[in-house]
Amino acid sequence: MSPLRANRIPAISASLLPEETVAGRNARRALIWVVVMVVVVAGLCAAWFALAYRDKQAAEHELDAATVTVSDLQREQRTYSKTVQVQNEIATLDGQLKTVMANDLDWSALLDTVRSTGTPSGIRVDGVNGQLNGADGGGAAVSNPLPATNGATTIGALTVTGTGPDKQAVAAYVDALAKLTVVANPYVTNVATDEKTGVTFSLTVDITQNALCGRFTVACKPAGGK
Questions:
Q1: Which sequence ranges are marked TM in the entry (predicted)?
Q2: Which among 1, 72, 157, 209 is most buried, taking Cβ atoms within 10 Å?
Q3: Residue 141 CB neighbours (<10 A)
Q4: Residue 96, burial from CB neighbour count under 10 angstroms (0-12, 13-18, 19+)
Q5: Taking Cα atoms as reference points, which of 124, 107, 224, 220 lies closest to residue 169?
């Protein structure tokens, strides 16, 4: 038993303060907490405002610096306006030339290829007559009715005449032409025996799109190549 019970002293506690005093104390305590919260919130708002103002000032300084840089660059660009204009005109002219010269053909390289292809067989080319499709403003040039054996698009035709030691040499020449990419569909139209030169022949061969080249389009390959 506790000493309190042993002495039979009753445990009695009571608040003798008036209710108005307790309520006043609670009100003052609540007011203090409200004031503290308002001060804390006001401090946070002031800190946020100061940070935002500093960022705004920094952004304005950066904007001013960028504006000055742009003005300097524009002033320098005006100094070279003529050069820029000439460069733009050159670019425009190059584009126009590429369009106009899209069907440019290096006839010299093509003729050298036709001649050199027959050299291993002892073929001598005496004459070449060529024409591109629609080059004269009319219809398509005369060409073989067969599609290109190498899968390329035909754009014209050549008529080749020459001499060779025998018909086997002419056949070998035709086979060699068939392996090229710049021409296709070689077709012998005439072969005649000549007592002095061996045989004379004439053949037609189509010009393919692979033969198109020029300064403003696809670079031309060296003459004599495929």
A1: 30-51
A2: 157
A3: 19
A4: exposed
A5: 124
d(C-alpha 90, C-alpha 201), whole Å: 49
* Residue 210: how many other CB atoms lie within 10 Å: 20
AA letter at 101: M
Instruction: Tell me the two tokens of residue 46.
Output: 């002031």
Helices (H), 7-103: 19-79, 81-100
Per-residue model confidence (pLDDT) at position 226:
47
CA angle 108, 113, 118 (to 5 degrees): 135
Query: Token digits for 204?
Result: 């037609």
Alpha-carbon span 193 to 195, nearest angstrom: 7
Query: pLDDT tens across 152-186, in order?
Result: 788 889 999 999 999 999 999 999 999 998 899 99
CA distance 10 to 105: 126
148, with CB counted inside 10 A (0-12, 13-18, 19+), is buried
Mean pLDDT of 211-226: 59
Q: At a CB cut-off of 8 Å and minimum separation 6, what does 214 contact?
A: 101, 104, 105, 106, 220
**Half-sphere exposure at residue 14, Cβ-oriented, CA atoms within 13 angstroms:** 4
Kindly give the pairing relationship between strand 124-132 and strand 154-164. Answer: antiparallel
| Predicted pLDDT of residue 221 | 63
**Dihedral sign, CA of 148, 226, 206, 101?**
positive
- Quick one: how far is CA 24 from the chain centroid? 82
SS3 169: helix
